[in-house]
C-alpha cells in the first residue's frame, strides 16, 4: 500500500503542472493524512489585471482538476468540498483521497497529457483539428459546469481579434500594467521557477489573419526564442470561449476545471491552445463580449486551438517545498 504522504506528493506534483495566468502558479497545498487542501496564494494575484481574483481562481481550478485526475490515476476518488471554512476564504477546497476502483484507460490517457500539454504563443499550421473534436471538447466543458463555444462566424472572430488588440495596446499604455508584466516576465538567464520565461514566447510575434494580439512579455528588449521561418505557422486556428452561466467565485473555479479538462483532451490529438484574455481584463470590454457574443453567459477565457509545428516544452515550476505544507 502506498503511504498517504507519497500519494499526496504525487497529486500535488500533478496539480502544480496546471496552466496559470502569466505562469504565476497562484496556489499552495496543505497535507493532512489522506486529505489535501487547495489554497489560493493571493500574493501571486495580478493586482492590476485581475483585482477580483477571477483569473487567479481559474488558474487554481485548473490545478484542482489535475489533482482530481491524478487521484484517479492512482485508483482513488477525490471527494471535493469547496470553501469548507467561511473564515478562510483562500482555502478553496478540502480534497479527501479515498481508495477506489482502478483508473480507466481513458483516465490514464488523459493523465498522460498533463506533462505534454503546453500553452502556445503564435500561429498554427494549416492542419485542421480532427472532425468532431469541437463537440468532444464541448461535452468535456459541460461535465465541469461550463460551456465551450466555438466562434464560427468570421465577423465575430474579427471583432474578438480587434478587441484583443484594443485591450493589449491599452495595457501597453499603462505603466501599472507594464510593471506587472515586468514582474512576471523576467529577463533571460534568470533562475526563477515561475513567470513567463523568454523561451516560452517567440521573438517575433506571428501575424495571423484575423490577428489576435500577443502579450508584450519582451517589452521591446528583443527577448524570446528565434524560430525558423518554415516552422512558424500563420493560421489563426479555431477560436473558442469558455463561459459560465453565472459569475461567482465558484463559477471561476469551475471554469478553470473545465478549461484544463478541455486542454488535456485536446492535447490527446496534439492540439494546443493560445490564450488571448486581454479584453476580459477590462470590465467594460468583458461586458461587451458577454452581451454581443455570449448570449448573456459570462466569458471566462478566450483562446485559439490548433496544431503547432514547434514544441516549446513545459514551463518552469516551483519546487514542492514552496507549494506543499503540513496542514494542522
TrEMBL record:
Gene3D superfamilies, per database record = NADH Oxidase (3.40.109.10)
Q: What is the lineage of its organism?
A: Bacteria, Bacillati, Actinomycetota, Actinomycetes, Streptosporangiales
This one is known as Nitroreductase family protein
Q: Which intervals carry biased composition (Basic and acidic residues)? A: 317-328
Residue span of region Disordered: 308-328
Query: Which organism does this sequence originate in?
Result: Actinoallomurus spadix
Q: Which SUPFAM superfamilies match?
A: FMN-dependent nitroreductase-like
Question: What are the transmembrane regions?
Answer: none
Amino acid at each position: 500500500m502506498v503511504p498517504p504522504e507519497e500519494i499526496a506528493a504525487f497529486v500535488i506534483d500533478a496539480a502544480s503542472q496546471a496552466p496559470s495566468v502569466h505562469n504565476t502558479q497562484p496556489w499552495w497545498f496543505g497535507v493532512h493524512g489522506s486529505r489535501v487542501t487547495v489554497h489560493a496564494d493571493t500574493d501571486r494575484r495580478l493586482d492590476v489585471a485581475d483585482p477580483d481574483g477571477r483569473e487567479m481562481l481559474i488558474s487554481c481550478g485548473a490545478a484542482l482538476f489535475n489533482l482530481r485526475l491524478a487521484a484517479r490515476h492512482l485508483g482513488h476518488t477525490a471527494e471535493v468540498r469547496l470553501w469548507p471554512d467561511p473564515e478562510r476564504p483562500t482555502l478553496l477546497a478540502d480534497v479527501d483521497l479515498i481508495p477506489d476502483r482502478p483508473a480507466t484507460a481513458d483516465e490514464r490517457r488523459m493523465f498522460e497529457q498533463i506533462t505534454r500539454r503546453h500553452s502556445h504563443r503564435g500561429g498554427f499550421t494549416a492542419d485542421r483539428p480532427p472532425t468532431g473534436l469541437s463537440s468532444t471538447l464541448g461535452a468535456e466543458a459541460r461535465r465541469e459546469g461550463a460551456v465551450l463555444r466555438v466562434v464560427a462566424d468570421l465577423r465575430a472572430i474579427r471583432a474578438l481579434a480587434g478587441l484583443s488588440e484594443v485591450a493589449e495596446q491599452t495595457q501597453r499604455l499603462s505603466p501599472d500594467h507594464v510593471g506587472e508584466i515586468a514582474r512576471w516576465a523576467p529577463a533571460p538567464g534568470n533562475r526563477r521557477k515561475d513567470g513567463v520565461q523568454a523561451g516560452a514566447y517567440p521573438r517575433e510575434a506571428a501575424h495571423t489573419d484575423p490577428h489576435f494580439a500577443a502579450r508584450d512579455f519582451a517589452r521591446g528588449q528583443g527577448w524570446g526564442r528565434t524560430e525558423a521561418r518554415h516552422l512558424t505557422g500563420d493560421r489563426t486556428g479555431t477560436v473558442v470561449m469558455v463561459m459560465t452561466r453565472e459569475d461567482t467565485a465558484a463559477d471561476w473555479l469551475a471554469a478553470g476545471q473545465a478549461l484544463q479538462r478541455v486542454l488535456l483532451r485536446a492535447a490527446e490529438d496534439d492540439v494546443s491552445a493560445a490564450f488571448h484574455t486581454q479584453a476580459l481584463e477590462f470590465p467594460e470590454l468583458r461586458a461587451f463580449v458577454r452581451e454581443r457574443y455570449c448570449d448573456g453567459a459570462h466569458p471566462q477565457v478566450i483562446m485559439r486551438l490548433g496544431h503547432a509545428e514547434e514544441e516549446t516544452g513545459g514551463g518552469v515550476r516551483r519546487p514542492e517545498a514552496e507549494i506543499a505544507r503540513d496542514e494542522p
